[in-house]
Amino acid sequence: MKANERFHVLLNGYKANPKRLVEDLIHGIFLLLGLVAVGSVLVITIYLIVSGLPAILEIGPAEFLFGERWASTAKEPEYGILPFILTSIYGTAGAIVIGVPIGFFVAVYLAKMAPARLKEVMRLCIGVLAGIPSVIYGLVGMTILVPAVRKIFGVPDGASLLAAILVLAVMILPSVINVSLSALEAVPVEYEQASLALGATDIETYFKVSVPAAKSGIFTAVVLGIGRAIGEAMAIMMVAGNVANMPGLFRSVRFLTTAIASEMSYSSGLQREALFSIALVLFLFIMLINATLNWIKTRSRKI
User: Fold this and answer.
1) Do the beta carbons of residue 72 and residue 272 sit within 8 Å?
2) Distance in angstroms (rounded) separating the CA atoms of residues 110 and 137
3) Which of 82, 47, 301, 101 is nearest to 221 (CA)?
4) Which domain holds residue 9?
Protein backbone atom coordinates (compact mmCIF):
# COMPACT_ATOMS: atom_id res chain seq x y z
CA MET A 1 0.00 0.00 0.00
CA LYS A 2 1.33 3.41 -1.00
CA ALA A 3 1.90 6.20 1.49
CA ASN A 4 -1.01 8.29 0.14
CA GLU A 5 -3.39 5.35 0.36
CA ARG A 6 -2.32 4.61 3.95
CA PHE A 7 -2.81 8.27 4.85
CA HIS A 8 -6.37 8.27 3.47
CA VAL A 9 -7.19 5.02 5.28
CA LEU A 10 -5.85 6.49 8.53
CA LEU A 11 -7.76 9.75 7.98
CA ASN A 12 -10.99 7.88 7.32
CA GLY A 13 -10.42 5.86 10.47
CA TYR A 14 -10.04 9.06 12.51
CA LYS A 15 -13.27 10.45 11.00
CA ALA A 16 -15.11 7.30 11.96
CA ASN A 17 -13.60 7.23 15.45
CA PRO A 18 -12.48 10.70 16.71
CA LYS A 19 -11.43 9.23 20.08
CA ARG A 20 -8.72 7.29 18.32
CA LEU A 21 -7.17 10.55 17.10
CA VAL A 22 -7.02 11.88 20.65
CA GLU A 23 -5.48 8.64 21.91
CA ASP A 24 -2.86 8.63 19.16
CA LEU A 25 -1.98 12.28 19.87
CA ILE A 26 -1.57 11.58 23.57
CA HIS A 27 0.50 8.51 22.76
CA GLY A 28 2.71 10.59 20.49
CA ILE A 29 3.16 13.30 23.14
CA PHE A 30 4.12 10.74 25.80
CA LEU A 31 6.52 9.08 23.38
CA LEU A 32 8.13 12.44 22.59
CA LEU A 33 8.49 13.29 26.29
CA GLY A 34 10.02 9.88 26.97
CA LEU A 35 12.54 10.36 24.16
CA VAL A 36 13.40 13.82 25.52
CA ALA A 37 14.06 12.32 28.96
CA VAL A 38 16.24 9.55 27.56
CA GLY A 39 18.02 12.00 25.28
CA SER A 40 18.72 14.33 28.20
CA VAL A 41 20.34 11.52 30.16
CA LEU A 42 22.47 10.58 27.16
CA VAL A 43 23.56 14.19 26.59
CA ILE A 44 24.48 14.61 30.27
CA THR A 45 26.39 11.32 30.23
CA ILE A 46 28.36 12.18 27.12
CA TYR A 47 29.10 15.71 28.35
CA LEU A 48 30.39 14.48 31.72
CA ILE A 49 32.54 11.81 30.10
CA VAL A 50 34.05 14.26 27.61
CA SER A 51 34.62 16.91 30.30
CA GLY A 52 35.73 14.70 33.17
CA LEU A 53 37.67 11.79 31.70
CA PRO A 54 40.73 13.78 30.50
CA ALA A 55 41.50 15.02 34.02
CA ILE A 56 41.21 11.51 35.45
CA LEU A 57 43.65 10.23 32.85
CA GLU A 58 46.04 13.13 33.43
CA ILE A 59 46.02 12.84 37.22
CA GLY A 60 45.91 9.05 37.18
CA PRO A 61 42.82 6.96 38.00
CA ALA A 62 44.34 5.41 41.13
CA GLU A 63 45.66 8.71 42.49
CA PHE A 64 42.41 10.49 41.70
CA LEU A 65 40.01 7.90 43.14
CA PHE A 66 42.11 6.65 46.08
CA GLY A 67 44.20 9.68 46.95
CA GLU A 68 43.53 10.93 50.48
CA ARG A 69 44.47 14.57 50.01
CA TRP A 70 42.70 17.28 48.02
CA ALA A 71 44.73 20.48 47.62
CA SER A 72 43.67 21.93 44.29
CA THR A 73 45.09 25.43 44.96
CA ALA A 74 48.43 24.40 46.44
CA LYS A 75 51.75 25.13 44.74
CA GLU A 76 51.96 21.43 43.95
CA PRO A 77 48.26 20.51 43.70
CA GLU A 78 46.89 17.13 44.71
CA TYR A 79 43.57 15.77 43.52
CA GLY A 80 42.62 12.81 45.67
CA ILE A 81 38.86 12.44 46.15
CA LEU A 82 38.70 9.40 48.43
CA PRO A 83 37.62 11.60 51.39
CA PHE A 84 34.73 12.95 49.32
CA ILE A 85 33.64 9.48 48.20
CA LEU A 86 33.70 7.98 51.70
CA THR A 87 31.99 11.02 53.20
CA SER A 88 29.17 10.81 50.64
CA ILE A 89 28.74 7.08 51.32
CA TYR A 90 28.74 7.46 55.10
CA GLY A 91 26.53 10.55 55.04
CA THR A 92 23.95 9.00 52.73
CA ALA A 93 23.94 5.69 54.61
CA GLY A 94 23.50 7.47 57.94
CA ALA A 95 20.64 9.58 56.64
CA ILE A 96 18.90 6.50 55.23
CA VAL A 97 19.36 4.52 58.47
CA ILE A 98 17.76 7.35 60.45
CA GLY A 99 15.27 8.83 57.98
CA VAL A 100 13.78 5.77 56.25
CA PRO A 101 12.51 3.92 59.36
CA ILE A 102 11.01 7.14 60.77
CA GLY A 103 9.36 7.98 57.45
CA PHE A 104 8.10 4.43 56.99
CA PHE A 105 6.48 4.17 60.42
CA VAL A 106 4.96 7.63 60.09
CA ALA A 107 3.46 6.59 56.73
CA VAL A 108 2.00 3.40 58.25
CA TYR A 109 0.53 5.36 61.13
CA LEU A 110 -1.03 7.99 58.86
CA ALA A 111 -2.36 5.44 56.38
CA LYS A 112 -3.83 2.95 58.83
CA MET A 113 -4.12 4.33 62.36
CA ALA A 114 -4.34 8.12 62.48
CA PRO A 115 -7.72 9.90 62.84
CA ALA A 116 -8.87 11.64 59.67
CA ARG A 117 -8.41 15.17 61.05
CA LEU A 118 -4.90 14.47 62.35
CA LYS A 119 -4.03 12.82 59.06
CA GLU A 120 -4.99 15.91 57.07
CA VAL A 121 -3.03 18.20 59.39
CA MET A 122 0.07 16.01 59.15
CA ARG A 123 -0.27 15.79 55.38
CA LEU A 124 -0.24 19.58 55.26
CA CYS A 125 2.82 19.76 57.50
CA ILE A 126 4.68 17.17 55.42
CA GLY A 127 3.83 19.12 52.27
CA VAL A 128 5.27 22.26 53.83
CA LEU A 129 8.37 20.32 54.86
CA ALA A 130 8.82 19.15 51.28
CA GLY A 131 8.57 22.69 49.94
CA ILE A 132 11.16 24.27 52.23
CA PRO A 133 14.27 25.31 50.22
CA SER A 134 17.53 23.53 50.97
CA VAL A 135 19.19 26.73 52.11
CA ILE A 136 16.60 27.08 54.89
CA TYR A 137 17.43 23.60 56.16
CA GLY A 138 21.08 24.61 56.10
CA LEU A 139 20.42 27.88 57.89
CA VAL A 140 18.42 26.20 60.67
CA GLY A 141 21.03 23.48 60.97
CA MET A 142 23.86 26.01 61.14
CA THR A 143 22.20 28.17 63.80
CA ILE A 144 20.57 25.45 65.95
CA LEU A 145 21.91 21.98 65.18
CA VAL A 146 25.62 22.79 64.87
CA PRO A 147 25.81 24.61 68.25
CA ALA A 148 23.76 21.79 69.82
CA VAL A 149 26.18 19.13 68.55
CA ARG A 150 29.12 21.16 69.85
CA LYS A 151 27.54 21.56 73.27
CA ILE A 152 26.13 18.04 73.72
CA PHE A 153 29.19 16.11 72.57
CA GLY A 154 31.80 18.59 73.76
CA VAL A 155 33.59 18.91 70.42
CA PRO A 156 35.45 22.03 69.23
CA ASP A 157 33.20 22.50 66.19
CA GLY A 158 29.70 21.16 65.70
CA ALA A 159 29.93 21.49 61.90
CA SER A 160 30.55 17.82 61.22
CA LEU A 161 29.46 14.65 59.48
CA LEU A 162 26.95 14.01 62.28
CA ALA A 163 25.24 17.36 61.68
CA ALA A 164 25.11 16.63 57.94
CA ILE A 165 23.57 13.20 58.54
CA LEU A 166 20.86 14.64 60.79
CA VAL A 167 19.99 17.39 58.30
CA LEU A 168 19.83 14.90 55.43
CA ALA A 169 17.65 12.56 57.49
CA VAL A 170 15.12 15.35 57.99
CA MET A 171 15.28 16.40 54.34
CA ILE A 172 14.43 12.94 52.99
CA LEU A 173 11.43 12.47 55.29
CA PRO A 174 8.84 14.15 53.00
CA SER A 175 9.77 11.96 50.03
CA VAL A 176 9.72 8.75 52.06
CA ILE A 177 6.49 9.58 53.86
CA ASN A 178 4.49 10.85 50.89
CA VAL A 179 5.34 8.02 48.48
CA SER A 180 4.99 5.31 51.14
CA LEU A 181 1.67 6.79 52.25
CA SER A 182 0.31 6.79 48.69
CA ALA A 183 1.42 3.17 48.23
CA LEU A 184 -0.23 2.03 51.46
CA GLU A 185 -3.47 3.85 50.68
CA ALA A 186 -3.59 2.10 47.29
CA VAL A 187 -3.72 -1.38 48.88
CA PRO A 188 -7.23 -2.82 48.30
CA VAL A 189 -9.26 -2.82 51.51
CA GLU A 190 -10.37 -6.37 50.74
CA TYR A 191 -6.86 -7.63 51.58
CA GLU A 192 -7.10 -6.23 55.09
CA GLN A 193 -10.69 -7.38 55.57
CA ALA A 194 -9.73 -10.92 54.61
CA SER A 195 -6.80 -10.87 57.03
CA LEU A 196 -8.97 -9.58 59.88
CA ALA A 197 -11.64 -12.18 59.08
CA LEU A 198 -9.02 -14.92 59.49
CA GLY A 199 -8.28 -13.74 63.01
CA ALA A 200 -5.23 -11.49 62.51
CA THR A 201 -4.89 -8.41 64.68
CA ASP A 202 -4.81 -4.90 63.23
CA ILE A 203 -1.04 -4.60 63.67
CA GLU A 204 -0.44 -8.01 62.10
CA THR A 205 -2.64 -7.03 59.17
CA TYR A 206 -0.83 -3.73 58.63
CA PHE A 207 2.67 -5.18 58.67
CA LYS A 208 2.07 -8.64 57.21
CA VAL A 209 -0.55 -7.81 54.56
CA SER A 210 -0.66 -4.10 53.74
CA VAL A 211 3.06 -3.40 53.83
CA PRO A 212 4.04 -6.40 51.63
CA ALA A 213 1.30 -5.44 49.17
CA ALA A 214 2.72 -1.89 49.00
CA LYS A 215 6.40 -2.85 49.01
CA SER A 216 6.95 -1.65 45.43
CA GLY A 217 5.84 1.88 46.31
CA ILE A 218 7.75 1.82 49.60
CA PHE A 219 10.87 0.73 47.75
CA THR A 220 10.39 3.66 45.36
CA ALA A 221 10.19 5.97 48.37
CA VAL A 222 13.53 4.67 49.61
CA VAL A 223 15.09 5.23 46.17
CA LEU A 224 13.81 8.82 46.11
CA GLY A 225 15.17 9.38 49.59
CA ILE A 226 18.60 8.10 48.59
CA GLY A 227 18.58 10.32 45.52
CA ARG A 228 17.71 13.37 47.63
CA ALA A 229 20.44 12.58 50.13
CA ILE A 230 23.16 12.00 47.53
CA GLY A 231 22.34 15.06 45.44
CA GLU A 232 22.06 17.64 48.24
CA ALA A 233 24.74 20.34 48.32
CA MET A 234 23.74 23.71 49.76
CA ALA A 235 22.38 22.57 53.13
CA ILE A 236 25.31 20.18 53.62
CA MET A 237 27.84 22.88 52.81
CA MET A 238 26.42 24.98 55.65
CA VAL A 239 26.49 22.30 58.38
CA ALA A 240 29.33 19.91 57.47
CA GLY A 241 32.24 22.35 57.73
CA ASN A 242 33.27 21.87 54.08
CA VAL A 243 36.83 20.73 54.84
CA ALA A 244 38.47 17.99 52.79
CA ASN A 245 39.12 15.59 55.70
CA MET A 246 38.80 11.85 55.83
CA PRO A 247 35.34 11.19 57.30
CA GLY A 248 34.81 11.12 61.03
CA LEU A 249 31.54 11.53 62.90
CA PHE A 250 32.66 14.75 64.61
CA ARG A 251 35.05 16.03 61.94
CA SER A 252 34.38 18.74 59.39
CA VAL A 253 33.97 17.02 56.04
CA ARG A 254 33.21 17.68 52.40
CA PHE A 255 30.83 15.69 50.19
CA LEU A 256 31.18 15.09 46.46
CA THR A 257 28.45 17.63 45.75
CA THR A 258 29.89 20.31 48.03
CA ALA A 259 33.35 19.79 46.58
CA ILE A 260 32.01 20.83 43.19
CA ALA A 261 29.86 23.69 44.46
CA SER A 262 32.55 25.23 46.67
CA GLU A 263 35.28 25.55 44.02
CA MET A 264 33.59 25.74 40.63
CA SER A 265 33.14 29.53 40.71
CA TYR A 266 36.87 30.30 40.77
CA SER A 267 38.36 27.17 39.21
CA SER A 268 40.35 27.02 35.99
CA GLY A 269 42.60 24.67 34.08
CA LEU A 270 43.19 21.23 35.59
CA GLN A 271 41.32 22.19 38.76
CA ARG A 272 38.15 22.87 36.77
CA GLU A 273 38.56 19.65 34.81
CA ALA A 274 39.03 17.75 38.08
CA LEU A 275 35.74 19.16 39.36
CA PHE A 276 34.02 17.83 36.25
CA SER A 277 35.70 14.51 37.00
CA ILE A 278 34.12 14.59 40.46
CA ALA A 279 30.76 15.22 38.79
CA LEU A 280 31.38 12.19 36.57
CA VAL A 281 32.21 10.03 39.60
CA LEU A 282 29.07 11.27 41.38
CA PHE A 283 26.96 10.55 38.31
CA LEU A 284 28.34 7.01 38.00
CA PHE A 285 27.89 6.55 41.74
CA ILE A 286 24.20 7.45 41.49
CA MET A 287 23.72 5.22 38.44
CA LEU A 288 25.35 2.30 40.27
CA ILE A 289 23.13 2.76 43.30
CA ASN A 290 19.98 2.96 41.15
CA ALA A 291 20.99 -0.13 39.19
CA THR A 292 21.67 -2.04 42.42
CA LEU A 293 18.36 -1.01 43.97
CA ASN A 294 16.45 -1.93 40.81
CA TRP A 295 18.16 -5.32 40.80
CA ILE A 296 17.17 -5.87 44.43
CA LYS A 297 13.61 -4.80 43.62
CA THR A 298 13.39 -7.19 40.67
CA ARG A 299 14.86 -10.02 42.70
CA SER A 300 12.42 -9.45 45.57
CA ARG A 301 9.49 -9.76 43.15
CA LYS A 302 10.66 -13.22 42.10
CA ILE A 303 10.95 -14.49 45.67
Assistant:
1) no
2) 24
3) 101
4) 3-59
What is the tens place of the pLDDT at every residue in 44-69? Answer: 989 999 988 999 999 999 999 999 99
Tell me the C-alpha distance between 156 and 163, whole Å: 14
Handedness of CA 273, 274, 275, 277 (dihedral sign): positive
The identity of residue 284, as a single letter, is L
Q: Which residues on neighbouring strands pair with residue 296, listed in sequence order? A: none
C-alpha distances in angstroms, 250 versus 93, 135, 153, 253, 286? 16, 22, 9, 9, 26
pTM of structure: 0.86
Residue 232, in any domain of the structure: yes
Predicted confidence at residue 230, as pLDDT, reads 87
What is d(CA 174, CA 168) in angstroms, rounded to the nearest whole number?
A: 11
In Å, how far are 115, 184, 224 from 109, measured between CA atoms? 10, 10, 20
65 part of a folded domain = no
**Are both 40 and 183 inside the same structural domain?**
no
Helix axes 215-231, 161-185, angle to 10 degrees: 150
Are the C-beta atoms of residues 140 and 221 closer than 8 Å to each other?
Answer: no
How many domains, in total, are found in the chain?
2
Q: Taking Cα atoms as reference points, which of 204, 263, 255 lies closest to residue 92?
A: 255
- Helix (H) or strand (E) holding 79, with range, is strand 78-79
Q: What is the rounded CA–CA span in Å between residue 252 and residue 274?
A: 22
**Residue 155 belongs to a domain:** yes
